[in-house]
């Protein structure tokens, strides 16, 4: 990490220790490991392998600014945002440029190192830890879980714990915003689907996705091929969620749905098309 970035550390992420000089987030270090501990460790290992090429595979695009534009319809300029899965700052940095005060949580040290390199001014406050066990001891105007972050919790209990963590950090008059993919097409997928992502002129990332409909799990096997390097492989498991499940997760955590869209420009959501994203907006129950 660079000296210009201050990183907090949350308890409960297996194998993580706070380096000297790193702020400890509030929490009971003697508490049992949170439900997402194993899932977070798997996701972190997967992300660490892909951190070097993440921005090549998922480059910043002009439509990322749509997220900030939408958030300004539910929050004031300069509002505080807690982003789960901040990664390399693909979403957080455009938010900071629009004036939001962003804390970003990430389980992958590799991703946070990339974020630090892209954010030498320290506009983002990075937090290293497990989403589901997170307790920063404060609230935010917006809690944001974009780009399928909720689906990175591979089991129902982990997703419930993550929903509670989001509810724990949202202000009484704030909003929780969750972006997931529409699982309609994937749920009926019968065979592995293979996708190749170019990594600039350096190589390619080959991704194979298989689906277990009964548990709503998707296994991703990625092979990274870069010039001059031995092949690297990484595997992770996601659990996709239906919109009705999101409503139930919210209700369990004390949140109510106030809007659902098929994108950040508030397009109507009608379901049944996995080319579209599902943006669900919740607020705390009174």
Question: Can you walk through the features of this model?
Answer:
This protein is α/β, with parallel strands linked by helices. The N and C termini lie far apart (41 Å). The protein has helices at 37-50, 54-57, 65-71, 92-97, 109-118, 156-169, 184-187, 243-252; strands spanning 8-9, 23-24, 80-84, 101-106, 124-128, 140-145, 170-181, 193-199, 203-212, 217-226, 232-239, 255-261, 277-284.
Q: Name the helicity range.
A: 10-25%
> Helical segment tally?
8
Radius of gyration: 18 Å
As laid out across the biggest beta sheet, the strand order is 2-1-5-4-3-6-7-13-12
Shape: globular
Name its key features.
286 residues, alpha/beta, 4-stranded antiparallel beta sheet, 24% helix
What is shown here, in short?
The protein is α/β, with parallel strands linked by helices. It is 24% helix and 31% strand.
What's the layout of helices and strands?
Layout: E1 8-9, E2 23-24, H1 37-50, H2 54-57, H3 65-71, E3 80-84, H4 92-97, E4 101-106, H5 109-118, E5 124-128, E6 140-145, H6 156-169, E7 170-181, H7 184-187, E8 193-199, E9 203-212, E10 217-226, E11 232-239, H8 243-252, E12 255-261, E13 277-284
Parallel strand pairs: 1-2, 1-5, 3-4, 3-6, 4-5, 6-7
Antiparallel strand pairs: 7-13, 8-9, 9-10, 10-11, 12-13
